[in-house]
Amino acid sequence: MTASLTWLDHDSAAYERSLRLLALFKEKESRDELGIGAIRDAIADRLFPGTSTIQTRLRYMCFIPWIYAGLEKHRVPANEMLSKGREAEARLMVELGKTEKTGVIGREAGATLKRLPSSIYWSGMGAWGLRRFQSSQQEYHRSVEKLYALRKSRTRRDDGEWLDEQSHDTWYAHLLRLKPSNFPTGMDFNLTKQEASLLVECLQRHQRDSLLAWLARSAETLTDRVACDFPWQHPKYETFPLAHRNCLYQGRIFSFLHKGAALLYNLQLAELYAELVTTGGSAPSSSEINPEKYREALKDWTNDSEFHQLAVWSPTSLWPEVVAQGHSINGQTRTFVEQWWQIVLHNGASVSDSKDARNLIRMREKRKGPQSRFVNRNALKQWGGSAGTARLVYRWPTAQTFINDLQKAFHS
After folding, report:
1. Every domain of the chain and the residues it spans
2. Residue-wise burial string across 132-155, b where 16 or more C-beta atoms lie within 10 A, e elsewhere
3. Statement: the pTM of the whole predicted model exceeds 0.85
């Protein structure tokens, strides 16, 4: 039986989560091998709402509304919206390719690009109030002619305002007024100050309580660009609002705790893989799949200064941070995290050889059923090493790029 992902077609958020999950299957360091994605995403959504790991530059938040508002202006019919939109986004890609070396979505794939920028940014545009049509992109394509008809039927009052209070606008009108007259010719990723100010204003209005909104507002006054690997390393961390520091503290400790679980998972796979090679299981030998690599990494993990902070932390302090975002963390996931934490505290540096630890990791991964690498030899052969061993960063690289784009606009 083949596994599948389903969502209500009109549910933009569910669709985005499903696409995000599919994308993560292709990113070696981001794979959710142990099923903690709901925790990761809850923290990321609280800190940096509207972002995703495959977004590149902030000005796409402007480009996409400009493109589709232009198609609406020409009353492109519903059955042509997808193809005309793809053509317009392809033209933008070509124009950006003339001025930008990195960050251009589809530069390598060209006409074979499967996921367009509009799809990648659709959820974010909604979360920031730039997209007013509250449904999926597919539903938008189907509904566009109905929107045309509703707009045409509107009448104005004597004072010039619409009699119908519903504007039926699909995009934030103030953003549309900022579209360059030559768009998309000559476009690059450099936001104008007006565009940057509008994006900051939208974040303040629609995501006021997020760290992203706080950082965006600070971008107007901070001149030094930030470059750090993790959000808790930000040079202004101590000035962050207390709620954000608390969330980052929980995120940092959980990120560290999860890394140990991922390393033990990979250690066990490496041992199985080595057995497969030894017994002539037609699996290619690779230094990336050396068990000692992961055993040494686990040793370094237990010697890290952060390891000792696990003793003064508890998963019970994590759950309020993630449940507050409306994300559902099932009982099995909570139990796995709590048991892994307890085993780590009990075993310390010997956790790599703990039968309880090894069994917990194996049983957690075996929830994949026939696709588990512990039971499926073909899946084990395709492993490749280092599955999900990078620290969780909660989409910080994307958020950091966005903030730097804002700073450049305000201070260039």
Report:
1. 31-50+242-381, 59-150+165-188
2. ebebbbbbbbbbbeebbeeeeeee
3. yes
